[in-house]
């Protein structure tokens, strides 16, 4: 009996120690994020104004803005989302629900997992050879978006597979028992129940994409651009233009890199202000994903 009590006390001690370690680790991450936000706000908050958002970059720090950078970031992310999300979800569904479990599937799974850890500059070099030189898309928004799409594609695939794998088999069996086909089961049960995990993977991928610099510089992202892409709305039928896909671009991280490399103090403050905007964009995307996930889960009845 005495040995049992000692064993229980020992296990409780390690359980408490693990709890304290996890709590401290969480607070370390929150503290670093809070310190970063405070530092950026001290330097960059005074620079945030209407003119800062509506002005192009300039040689003069007081007149410089991020108009071309935030517009370019949004357009590049749109191309990234439309290229990577459907393919990633489709590949994840196929590998988890349709693909046979054999050596070929194992090789594909291993390569997808390895691709998720490949340095981003490698994707830039790949996109330079494929999209810029082979397909001749040039140094354009389309090239930048497809490059980041390749970058986050393994993340979306892996998140989709893990979310689908978490669905109990009893749901599939009940659907089949009522006469549903495999696709009907996936469409009406598997995907709705797994949408939370899928959205989490998508937002993690897009959050990584919005902060990438190296692959976009490799494919021709400009460090200084004083004009906007062509408007997607046209005055002529069909009133939609895709010319903007082939226009030059810059994004927020590239603009920040350009300002940080300048010796003037004013450009350092501009970079801090742009960092605040970039973090706000990331937090907004995360908040939107959490809201959509909440709405989906609220509609689902287990």
Percent of residues in beta strands? under 5%
What integer is the average pLDDT? 85
**Residue ranges: pLDDT <50 for 5 or more in a row?**
none
Structural class: mainly alpha
Reported for the largest beta sheet, the result is: none
Could you spell the SSE succession in H and E letters?
Answer: HHHHHHHHHHH
- Per DSSP, the total helix count is 11
Helix content: over 70%
- The separation of the N and C termini measures 44 Å
Radius of gyration: 24 Å
Shape: globular
- What's the total number of strands? 0
Characterize the structure shown.
By secondary structure, this protein is an all-alpha fold. It contains eleven helices and no strands. It has helices at 2-44, 50-54, 67-98, 103-115, 120-134, 141-165, 169-177, 182-210, 214-218, 252-260, 265-299. It is globular, with a radius of gyration of 24 Å. The two termini are 44 Å apart. The mean pLDDT is 85.
